[in-house]
Design goal:
The complex is a heterodimer of chains A (294) and B (335).
Chain A: H1 2-32, H2 39-55, H3 61-84, H4 92-114, E1 119-120, H5 126-129, E2 131-134, E3 137-140, H6 141-163, H7 165-175, H8 177-182, H9 187-213, E4 215-216, H10 222-235, H11 240-259, H12 266-280
Antiparallel strand pairs in A: 1-4, 2-3
Chain B: H1 2-27, H2 33-58, H3 66-83, H4 87-112, H5 117-136, E1 147-148, H6 156-175, H7 177-187, H8 189-194, H9 199-225, E2 227-228, H10 235-248, H11 253-269, H12 274-291, H13 306-320, H14 324-332
Antiparallel strand pairs in B: 1-2
Helix pairs in contact in B: 2-6, 2-9, 2-10, 2-11, 3-4, 3-5, 3-9, 4-9, 6-7, 7-9, 10-11, 10-12
The chains are: A mainly alpha (294), B mainly alpha (335).
């Protein structure tokens, strides 16, 4: 029982990171039906920004988190404006290939500047490194931090999407971009804002991962990015609650597969889940079935 | 009949000449092993790109898992030739790898090809990752260290004729009724279905043929470079192949061939700077998509069939304007 609860805690902290990344995927997909392959690399950039802010600038954890979020926000908007906006009316394959191109560009540009070597995150202040016992389960302060920060950001996101004008514009554009434009919504700005929100969350996830796993490298974004995408698909792509459920589910599955001594196969299991979901219910757990029209 | 023969010779003679010239140069020691390795890379990339083009360019099914099929072919061919180091073993391994890759293509394709564009891309990517992870964790495949000391059978003759055969078979498939059905699926799936094209069968067929030749390419790779490991067949390899197809033009076999040669030369030149190579690759992807999404060739073809035009011009002047469709058809032929 204790072992199980321990793995649940581990799964929750990993899952909240996946959920943060998956939110960006799902919002972008919801609004322009694009799998933003570069999203995982925005997360990688966030991790590096956090790293340099903590080492070179000697800032604290929360300041670094904020800086990473702001820089990733700008990066996300720039990517959208430069690479995706000119392709608004192209085929989906064209945009998808562009997204892969942007992803590789971010990875290898980063590698060019910082080198391919793995870097380890600077040690955290004492209040973040300790751990405490709850009923025989060891909970690290880091884990509390990760889960707490994630939940806070998700709550803020939900507030923006549900309660503000720009949030309402986002929902309108995702339902029908043309109709939204007729109602006087600036669709381009709304799309940029969506990228800004998603990228900021990815940046935060990057710093949290750096703190949690203590090592970062320029290619670290590929696999978590793909898994976060699996999480988004699992929950129903385009749906914010779906991304949360999916993120926690994938994090949990991965943790339990590792705990069962099959850690070598944990990625294969995640992709197996993806294929199974796509075959059984391609719209995801919470998705509704939309008939394709001629 | 005679006309067909002449047309065939017009295409076959330059090809055979190219093959013979290189053969002579190899025997004369002018083409060294270093150049031959580049040529092997080009041949393998042509086979990979042409087969991916069949799936993505002509049938419109976006696949990100081509490296997975290549891995199946490479490991099959490697293990068969290591157990049976003879030409027979090599051919058996090559074909076995192709067939196995095609079967996996069928297994994955049947359910997932019902998905639309980008979902399919992710599903195929997941499939390739699963293949790689399985190879990584088997004793028989020697895990992450991979297999080395694979008997080398792929000389210039093999690589040349395997490549030509691949292009020839796929070009002919595309001109068959099944091939036309595949192209109609790309143009408009719903319209194709409404005129009686079995869209799922067309997609699965294209997927299997593409997978088969990706497997062959994997076998060629294993046999020439006599060392394989799972990491060689990761996501980046799939992207590499995709770059060739996109650069050459989705829906142009000759474009794929030209792009494969061009990119091999560029990456040979950039060998000392591997990071720069990837930056240029990725920039090229983005820039091509924004400014010339149809690639170098679009869906046009250049072919040795062009040579036919010079021959036919004099007697065919009178009928040329009457039969533009037929002429266009000829121009599209490859090889």
């Amino acid at each position: 029982m204790g072992e199980f609860a321990q793995q649940v805690i581990n799964g929750l902290s990993l899952g909240s990171i996946y959920a943060l990344i998956a939110l960006g995927y799902t919002m972008v997909y919801g609004i322009i039906q694009l799998i933003n392959f570069a999203h995982g690399d925005v997360y990688m950039v966030g991790a590096y920004v956090g790293y340099f802010s903590m080492t070179t600038l000697r800032l604290g954890f929360f300041e670094s988190l904020l800086i990473a979020m702001v820089i990733c926000m700008v990066l996300g908007v720039v990517i959208e404006r430069v690479a995706y906006k000119p392709l608004r009316n192209s085929t989906r394959i064209a945009v998808l290939i562009t997204a892969i191109g942007v992803s590789l560009l971010l990875e290898y540009t980063m590698m060019f500047f910082v080198g391919a070597a793995v870097r380890s995150y600077p040690p955290l202040p004492d209040y973040l490194t300790g751990s405490f016992q709850v009923g025989g389960v060891t909970v690290g302060n880091q884990q509390v931090l990760i889960i707490g920060v994630s939940l806070l950001l998700m709550a803020i996101l939900q507030l923006i999407v549900r309660r503000t004008r720009v949030g309402r514009a986002m929902r309108a554009v995702s339902q029908d971009a043309d109709a939204a434009r007729l109602m006087g919504i600036n669709v381009d700005n709304t799309i940029s804002f969506t990228f800004a929100l998603g990228s900021a969350l990815a940046g935060a996830a990057g710093v949290l991962v750096g703190v949690y796993y203590n090592s970062i490298n320029p290619l670290m974004g590929i696999l978590p990015g793909l898994k976060a995408f699996v999480a988004a698909v699992f929950g129903g792509i385009g749906l914010i609650p779906g991304a949360l459920i999916g993120g926690f589910f994938i994090g949990g599955v991965e943790t339990f597969v590792s705990a069962a001594g099959q850690s070598l196969y944990k990625d294969a299991v995640v992709f197996g889940i993806l294929i199974a979901i796509l075959i059984i219910k391609p719209t995801g757990l919470l998705g509704r079935n939309v008939k394709e029209k001629v | 009949m005679k006309k067909g023969l002449v047309s065939f010779l017009v295409k076959a003679v330059p090809l055979l000449a190219a093959w013979a010239i290189v053969l002579v140069l190899i025997n004369a020691g002018i083409v060294t092993d270093y150049y031959l390795a580049t040529m092997a890379t080009i041949c393998i990339n042509i086979v990979l790109a042409v087969s991916l083009n069949l799936i993505t360019g002509f049938t419109g099914q976006f696949s990100l898992g081509h490296a997975g099929f290549m891995a199946i072919g490479a490991y099959t061919c490697a293990m068969v030739t290591m157990a049976e180091p003879s030409v027979l073993g090599f051919v058996g391994g090559l074909l076995g790898g192709g067939v196995l890759a095609a079967l996996v293509g069928l297994l994955v394709g049947l359910p997932t090809l019902r998905l639309r564009g980008d979902y399919l891309a992710i599903a195929t990517l997941g499939m390739a990752e699963i293949i790689r992870i399985i190879l990584l964790n088997q004793d028989a495949t020697n895990g992450a260290a991979g297999l080395s000391g694979i008997p080398a059978f792929l000389d210039w003759n093999w690589m040349f004729f395997l490549t030509v055969a691949t292009v020839w078979i796929i070009a002919n498939f595309l001109h068959s009724s099944q091939g036309r059905a595949c192209i109609s699926v790309r143009e408009d799936e719903i319209a194709a279905e409404s005129i009686g094209v079995h869209t799922v069968r067309s997609k699965v067929l294209a997927f299997m043929i593409g997978a088969f030749f990706a497997g062959i390419a994997g076998g060629m790779y294993a046999s020439y470079f006599y060392f394989i490991k799972p990491d060689l067949f990761g996501f980046l390899k799939s992207v590499d192949i995709l770059v060739i197809v996109v650069l050459g033009g989705l829906g142009s076999l000759s474009g794929s061939i030209i792009a494969a040669i061009l990119l091999a030369l560029i990456s040979t030149a950039l060998q000392p700077f591997p990071e720069l190579r990837m930056i240029i690759y990725s920039l090229a992807l983005v820039v091509i998509m924004i400014f010339r999404p149809q690639g170098l060739m679009g869906s046009r073809e250049v072919s040795l069939g062009v040579l036919n035009r010079f021959r036919r011009r004099e007697p065919a002047v009178a009928t040329a304007s009457a039969a533009p469709a037929i002429r266009r058809d000829d121009d599209e032929e490859v090889v």
